[in-house]
Amino acid sequence: MLDDIYKQLLIKQEQTGKKIDLLIICGDFQAIRNITDLKCMSCPDKYKQIGGFHRYYTGERRAPILTIFVGGNHEAGNHMRELYYGGWAAPNIFYMGGSSVVRFGGLRIGGVSGIFKDFDFAKGYYEHPPFRGHSRASMHHVRSFEIFKMLQVRTPLDIVVSHDWPQKIERFGDTAKLLAKKPFFKAEVDRNELGSQANALLLERLRPKWWFSAHLHVRFTAKVSSSETIYNKGWNAIPPYNNISKNDAAGLDGVQANIASASANTVSGAGAGTNSDEITIDSFSSDEGADSQQAPVVASSSPNRNETSRTRIPLNLPPPKHTANIATTNDELTQYSENEEEQHDLPPKIKEEVNEGAPSKDDFVISKEPTFSNPHVPGRSTEFLALDKCLPRRQFMEVIDVDVDGDYDPNVKHLQLEYDPEWLAILRLCQQYTPTDDMPFIPPRNAVFTGEKPSVPLFPDHLISQELEWVNENVFADGPVFIPPNFVQMAPAPPRETPDSAHFGLATRDFGSGARGSRGRGGRSGSRGQGRQNRGNWQDAQPWQGQLPYFLYPSPQTDDFCRMLGLQNLLTRRQQYDNLTSSSS
Fold it and tell me: How far apart are CA 453 and CA 160, in angstroms?
């Protein structure tokens, strides 16, 4: 499937005469390396196939176009967990992690992996090898912690990528046409339940220029103007936060302890395809094979685009100079008054001791109320695009030109992915709150629920400014930082001669007569059965050769990334100690 996508892109590039800069795939990428990855993919065994990704993983083939993707609900969850912060799944193919923001040619691109399920949304990352039972599915369910991190973004995003749609987005497009194509959506549309509540919350808060999604197997476009509201309920409207008691809610957003408050060029972006809970095993070029990469959207650019020459990310935040971490609840007094005459009535001896060596009022930036910058661009609308499955005669690919505002070096022709300073600052700020069990994630007390709609938990600007200052000094001191091409193959892959349709005996199929439906449901010979879903050959069922791969492998990329930011790898490092059982389990 991946081969077919790149083939079509290269044909499109030749036909239009436009260079395609970036391919974005919106989930269900299925970066399957081996039989253990197949076992960890959440779908019925009968649909499992090795596919063609392992050839890119081993270097047998190389992606001809830089590719980024988010996770869907049919992925090798163990492989994606190894790259939790994002990283190269293969050379020139970048996974955006659980959530992230990266830069590309002046564009800021945000991504959120997984689909929304209310019963898993609040949980932490409790899954452990060997990832049995529900944990294989829950690894693909978006967590509130990822949404919380994305909500902290304060500067505008150009593109956001997700697998499932933001809830209510169908109201901003041709709903009647959508229901004519997918009439079984009507009940969810009528109940305002089609799509993800969490993504709707992000869309309302972030308002990017473009939002690309997938998952529902239909092309759909919508436009949300800057004056329209898609979601106004806020964080507590999302289960289980809508069940928080009054006292708990007061503990979350009532107490504010320990807080102080270019020239236009063109870059192409791309949105991508979809796969819902339904699984179809048709492929792009034939009637066989499991569906994998879903409707990519591609990027094309003008020939004069180049890299930006920034060395700092400008944020309209309070200056980090000596920002005081001493503001308290609204019930308490500010420790240093702006009016020198406002002193507590202390005895002279005590007042002298208190004032001796005390910093002057000019040494502190004191805010009685915390401030929260808004990432909205006034007057800018959000264009939404979802595409269909990667099948013949379906709208699964689209090339889009995305305008970019910024200063660029005209001598730079090769665009690369870059780290985003603000996102790295957010990661440093949020790291200590990473949930590593199945208990509900509760926003920390120094994250304040905003009074505006939607009311969401936000860190005050000054806390992000402090981390951003560290990031600029320690990571971006010499200017933009490109994401290094530090991919290393860690897990084994099958031999080169292995067919893409191989399932190593995981799938239940009949190869006796080769006739369509030679064995039907319940094993009854001669019935129509499941048709092409059961077709295959004996080579596909050959067992895995050699030692069975482990569930998790160390990721040098993740280790390097955590060292760069001074983070502890709380998820994959911890789980590697639990990786004592091989996939033979």
Answer: 21
Which residues neighbour 6 within 8 Å (Cβ) at sequence distance 6 or greater? 63, 64, 65
**CA dihedral of 279, 285, 289, 290, whole degrees rounded to 10:** -30
Give the integer Cα–Cα distance in Å for 211 and 381.
Answer: 11
The continuous run of DSSP H or E covering 563 comes out as helix 556-565
Cα-to-chain-centroid distance, residue 27:
9
State in Å, rounded, how far the first CA of the chain is from the last one. 30
Which residue is it, tokens 């039989």? Answer: 35
* pLDDT 10s digits, 405-449: 655 554 566 789 999 999 999 999 999 999 999 999 999 999 999
d(CA 15, CA 79): 36
Nearest CA-CA partner of 41 in 561, 545, 503: 503
Q: In what helix (H) or strand (E) does residue 7 lie, and over which residues does it extend?
A: helix 2-16
How far apart (Å, rounded) are the C-alpha atoms in residues 266 and 511?
53
Measured in degrees and rounded to the nearest 5, phi and psi for residue 501 equal: -85, 0
Contact 310, 420 (CB under 8 A): no
Residue with tokens 């959508």: 178
The amino acid sitting at 290 is A
Query: Tokens 């034939």 label which residue?
Result: 286
Helix or strand holding residue 560 (H, E): helix 556-565
- pLDDT, one tens digit per residue, over 248-262 is 433 333 222 222 222
Q: Classify each residue of 509-527 as buried b or exposed e, where b means 16 or more C-beta atoms within 10 Å of its C-beta.
A: bbeeeeeebbbbeeeeeee
Query: How far, in Å, CA of 210 to CA of 423, rounded?
Result: 19
Phi-psi region of 263 (alpha: psi -120 to 50; beta: other; left: phi over 0): beta
Cis preceding-peptide flag for 240 (omega within 30 of 0): yes
Q: What is the mean pLDDT of residues 153-176?
A: 97
Q: Give 134-149 pLDDT, tens digit per residue.
A: 999 999 999 999 999 9
Task: Give this prediction's pTM.
Answer: 0.77
Phi, psi of 538 (to 5 degrees): -65, -30
For tokens 């003008």, name the residue: 302
Taking residue 254's Cβ as centre, other Cβ atoms within 10 Å add up to: 14
Q: Evaluate whether 68 touches 100 at the Cβ level (below 8 Å).
A: no
**Number of residues in the chain:** 585
Q: Quote the CA–CA distance of 400 and 299 in Å, as a whole number.
A: 6
Q: Which amino acid is at 401?
A: D
C-alpha 235/C-alpha 455 separation (Å) is 6
DSSP characters for 164-199? SPBTTGGGGB-HHHHHHH-GGGHHHHHTT-SSBHHH
Q: What is the 3-state secondary structure (H, E, C) of 22-87?
A: EEEECCCCCCCCCHHHHHHECCCHHHCCCCCHHHHHCCCCCCCCCEEECCCCCCEHHHHHHCCCCE
Where does 295-408 have alpha helices with state H? 348-355
